[in-house]
Design goal:
By secondary structure, the chain is mainly alpha-helical. The chain has 2 domains: about 50 residues, no CATH class; about 40 residues. The protein is built from 4 helices and 2 strands, in the order ααββαα. Strand 1 and strand 2 form a beta hairpin. Helix 3 runs antiparallel to helix 4. The model has no long low-confidence stretch (mean pLDDT about 90).
């Protein structure tokens, strides 16, 4: 069953990409929608990141995980090396959980 789901998602993804390439010249979007597409992509990524950072098993994940994400965001904003961002975010989350913060 899992293999069937993976294959269906792979075919769907490939189909979306193929349709985009095939209809690129045939589809004429209005200017306002062309300006909104990058904003929509950024909003979708932000929503996915917020969902992953704040929820676990359909409930609030606790304060340690969002605090770790915040540490990672600050370091990424300050252009720290990627390894440092990941290690610091995980370390902050682990430290807060070690101190008893859920």
């Amino acid at each position: 069953m899992l293999i069937a789901v993976i294959l269906a998602l792979a075919v769907g993804t490939y189909g979306f990409r193929a349709v985009g390439v095939l209809l690129h010249d045939r589809l004429d979007l209005p200017e306002w929608s062309r300006r909104l597409l990058p904003i929509g992509a950024a909003a979708l990524l932000a929503a996915l990141a917020a969902t992953a950072a704040l929820t676990e098993a359909a409930g609030f994940a606790g304060w340690a995980r969002p605090a770790g994400v915040l540490v990672g965001l600050v370091l990424a904003w300050r252009r720290a090396p990627f390894v440092l961002v990941v290690v610091a975010a995980a370390g902050a989350t682990a430290l807060l959980r070690l101190l008893g913060l859920p």
